[in-house]
């Protein structure tokens, strides 16, 4: 449709089917199947290994190797790589742990929270690394397990501190509420405690990564489609290309932001479970 | 590496929220390996370095504080010593001034005494000499008077010319005898 303004095409392409557009324009519409690639190894078993697992494995090996090298060479006067790692650790220590649990109480949970932050951050960043192109957290397994890790930790520390009954009372019966309200409040709070917290952690992370990946695919695919359309639409390609680059930068930010949110919520949940009073 | 193309058949939307067993298995393996390596090896090593550094910085600060304290103490002591020294110097000066004044006073007194003594001695000598001279003179005046009388008696005193000569001669004699006695 040559009469349309280019910007509208760019914005409307995602939900339009290819044949609606100009001749020669081919656009691969991304779908959920992106996240369910074919098996590479052990197809059909419980150890089916596909592209998603390969991305995760690469990230795991690279991150652990690099971190192990940095850690084993750690010096009192840090080099550049060590400084960056220390900066991230101190960011978690100060911005997350100190603000929620406090430095004294938080020291116990610091290893877990730092690990969680590094794990989610690096797995998220796989989504913007050329060649990997898919965040390790954009398929439900990792977000779910990380959220369940949070769940197990706050439940177990809460029970350890208050006892099972005391913990349930502590979490589901906030003081200073009129008695009849508890009829409403206890089921809601219990549901929140038992399901909603970890489920929302999982879905927040997963949905952000899925959406980020789809946006990248849409705009990069669109740019390519426009560029090779062989018609006047080529003129629009730079705009969609610029948008793709902008979204790419935004995805890096989202990767860090989601890691931060996940970790700080974990810290908050632990704090809620182990605090003395509300 | 191939881009994520996915399976050819469509996947239903709800599947994205439901993990398959293999997904859980691999995720669990990765998460556990990552967590164990991080918590057991990487973080303790890095934290040790971080702690060591902060300890060193704290130690350095503490040491600096101690040194500062020492410096302050030394400065105080020095100031006290300086003040004491100043006081001592002032007292010494004061004493010296007093001593000087005393010495001058004494010298003055001694000089006065000496002066007095010399004056007294001079006066005594003078009076003694005068007494001697008076006694001598008395004796000589007697002799002279008898001499003169004899001369006057010996010569005729009528002639004025003569008498004047006699007196002149007498006076000359007197004068010469006086020089002789000197």
Per-chain topology:
The complex is a heterodimer of chains A (278) and B (182).
Chain A: H1 6-12, E1 39-41, E2 49-50, H2 51-72, H3 80-100, H4 103-106, H5 110-125, H6 141-162, H7 164-172, H8 181-227, H9 237-274
Helix pairs in contact in A: 3-5, 3-9, 5-9, 6-7, 6-8, 6-9, 8-9
Chain B: H1 21-154, H2 160-181
Helix pairs in contact in B: 1-2
Give a description of the structure.
The complex is a heterodimer of chains A (278) and B (182). With 278 residues, chain A is an all-alpha fold. Chain A has one domain (28-274). Chain A is 67% helix and 2% strand. Chain A has helices spanning 6-12, 51-72, 80-100, 103-106, 110-125, 141-162, 164-172, 181-227, 237-274; strands at residues 39-41, 49-50. A two-stranded antiparallel sheet of chain A has the order 1-2. The radius of gyration of chain A is 23 Å and the shape is globular. Mean pLDDT of chain A is 86; it is low at 1-22. By secondary structure, chain B is an all-alpha fold. Chain B has one domain (50-181). In chain B, 86% of the residues lie in helices and 0% in strands. Chain B has helices at 21-154, 160-181. The termini of chain B are far apart. At the A-B interface, helix 2, helix 3, helix 5, helix 6 and helix 8 of A face helix 1 of B.
The number of helical elements of chain A comes to: 9
What level of helicity do the residues of chain B show?
over 70%
Number of strands of chain B: 0
Report the major sheet of chain B.
none
DSSP strand (E) fraction of chain A? under 5%
How many angstroms does the end-to-end distance of chain B come to? 154 Å
Strand order of the largest sheet of chain A: 1-2
Query: How would a textbook summarize the main sheet of chain A?
Result: 2 strands, antiparallel
What form of chain B results from the Cα inertia axes?
rod-shaped
The number of distinct β-strands of chain A equals: 2
Which regions of chain A are unreliable across 5 or more consecutive residues at pLDDT < 50? Answer: 1-22
Class of secondary structure makeup of chain A: mainly alpha
* Alpha-beta classification of chain B: mainly alpha
Number of helices of chain B: 2
Number of domains of chain A: 1
Pfam family, one (chain B): ATP-synt_B
Family (chain B): Belongs to the ATPase B chain family.
Keywords (chain B): ATP synthesis, Cell membrane, CF(0), Hydrogen ion transport, Ion transport, Membrane, Transmembrane, Transmembrane helix, Transport
Protein name (chain B): ATP synthase subunit b
């Amino acid at each position: 449709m040559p009469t349309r303004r280019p910007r509208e095409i760019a914005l409307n392409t995602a939900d339009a089917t290819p044949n609606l557009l100009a001749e020669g324009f081919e656009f691969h519409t991304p779908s959920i199947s992106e996240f369910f690639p074919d098996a590479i190894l052990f197809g059909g078993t419980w150890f089916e290994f596909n592209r998603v697992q390969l991305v995760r494995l690469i990230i795991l090996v690279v991150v652990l190797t690099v971190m192990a090298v940095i850690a084993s060479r750690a010096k009192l006067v840090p080099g550049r790589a060590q400084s960056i790692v220390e900066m991230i650790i101190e960011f978690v220590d100060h911005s997350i742990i100190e603000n929620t649990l406090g430095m004294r109480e938080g020291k116990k949970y610091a290893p877990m929270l730092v690990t969680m932050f590094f794990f989610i951050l690096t797995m998220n960043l796989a989504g913007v690394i050329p060649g990997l192109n898919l965040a390790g957290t954009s398929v439900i397994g990792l977000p779910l397990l990380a959220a369940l890790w949070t769940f197990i930790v706050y439940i177990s520390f809460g029970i350890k501190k208050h006892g099972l009954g005391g913990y349930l009372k502590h979490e589901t019966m906030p003081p200073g509420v009129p008695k009849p309200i508890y009829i409403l409040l206890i089921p809601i709070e219990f549901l929140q405690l038992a399901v909603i917290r970890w489920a929302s952690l999982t879905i927040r992370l997963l949905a952000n990564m899925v959406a980020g990946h789809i946006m990248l695919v849409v705009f990069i695919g669109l740019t390519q489609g426009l560029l090779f359309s062989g018609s006047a639409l080529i003129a629009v390609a730079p705009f969609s290309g610029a948008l793709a680059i902008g979204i790419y930068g935004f995805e890096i930010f989202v990767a860090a932001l989601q890691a931060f949110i996940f970790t700080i919520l974990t810290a908050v949940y632990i704090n809620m479970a182990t605090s003395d009073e509300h | 590496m191939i881009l994520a193309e996915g399976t050819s058949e469509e996947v239903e939307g709800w599947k994205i929220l439901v993990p398959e067993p293999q997904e859980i298995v691999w995720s669990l393996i990765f998460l556990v390996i990552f967590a164990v390596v991080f918590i057991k090896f990487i973080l303790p090593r890095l934290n040790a370095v971080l702690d060591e550094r902060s300890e060193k910085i704290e130690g350095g600060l503490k040491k600096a504080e101690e040194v500062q304290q020492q410096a302050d103490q030394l400065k105080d002591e020095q100031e006290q010593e300086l003040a004491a020294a100043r006081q001592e110097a002032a007292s010494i000066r004061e004493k010296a001034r007093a001593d000087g004044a005393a010495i001058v006073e004494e010298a003055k007194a001694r000089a006065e005494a000496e002066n007095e003594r010399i004056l007294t001695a001079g006066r005594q000598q003078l009076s003694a000499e005068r007494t001697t001279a008076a006694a001598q003179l008395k004796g000589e005046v007697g002799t002279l008077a008898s001499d003169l009388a004899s001369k006057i008696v010996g010569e005729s005193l009528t002639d004025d010319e003569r008498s004047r000569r006699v007196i002149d001669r007498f006076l000359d004699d007197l004068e010469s005898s006086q020089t002789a006695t000197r």
